[in-house]
Amino acid sequence: MNTFGDMAKALNRFPVQLSTLQKQFSLPAFEGAAYSDAYQTFLRTVISLRTLNVSDSALLDLWHLEKKLLQLLHADSTGSATWFLDECGRTTHPNCRLLLANYDIGMSLDAQGVQPGLNFDKKPRELFAGTEMGEDAMRVLGEILEIRARIQADIAAEIPHVRATLRRATTMNKHNAHSHTHPKR
User: Fold this and answer.
1) Can you tell me the distance from the alpha carbon of 100 to that of 172, in angstroms, rounded to the nearest whole number?
2) C-alpha distances in angstroms, 25 versus 65, 85, 93, 125, 137?
3) Cα(38)–Cα(44) distance, integer angstroms
4) Given CA atoms 127, 130, 132, 134 in this order, what sign does their dihedral have?
5) Residue 127: which residues within 8 A CB-CB, separation 6 or more?
6) Rg of the chain over CA atoms, in angstroms?
7) Among residues of the chain, what percentage have pLDDT more than 70?
8) Predicted structure pTM score
9) CB-count burial class (<10 Å; 0-12, 13-18, 19+) for 29
10) For residue range 99-127, what is the model confidence (pLDDT) as tens digits?
11) Which of 96, 121, 175, 185 has the fewest CB atoms within 10 Å around its CB?
């Protein structure tokens, strides 16, 4: 478990920046060393995607849809205050995991489907099925996949710029290191 300050240091961000992310993504705030590694991994994912020029609006839209899908699949029944990000950092079945929540939905996201009767809840089933209440997991998953595809396209477009930036940073670091090794005359 981590403190808020530990996370800020590990993520190389000012606490106010993390606090802003908490508010944007409606994440719970805790006192003391109560932040899980999964919580920190979620923030690292968001920061990484923002660094890759993925817009805040795309991230927030995706986040809300992923949480909605997880609710439709009853993944919110764990009793955890952070149920929507507790899977962050897990690496098994990467092609079955949502982009932000990192939740394994049990089938490949490339298949563009989800088992309609899938229910992660251990409690008795509700009186009406989710689709009877107007909640369509397939529709939500379709929206998630659309946003995910746009984000993947944005990342692909940004990769050449990231590579160029890394080359420039490497050159600057070499120059900087080289200038420190020579004594001034």
Assistant:
1) 33
2) 12, 11, 25, 29, 21
3) 10
4) positive
5) none
6) 20
7) 82
8) 0.79
9) exposed
10) 999 999 888 887 554 444 444 444 444 44
11) 185
Instruction: Provide DSSP, 79-147.
Output: --TTTTTTTTT--SSGGGB-TTT--B-SS-GGGT---TT-----SPPPSS-GGGGT--HHHHHHHHHHH
CB 2 within 8 A of CB 30: no
Nearest to 27 by CA among 99, 132, 78, 100: 100
Distance CA 167, CA 178 (A): 16
**Amino acid at site 116:** P
User: Measured between alpha carbons, how far is 104 from 101 in angstroms, rounded to an integer?
Assistant: 9
- Confirm if 62 and 100 have CB atoms less than 8 A apart: yes
Q: What is the structure's pLDDT at 124?
A: 40
Residue 11 CB neighbours (<10 A): 17
Length of the chain: 185
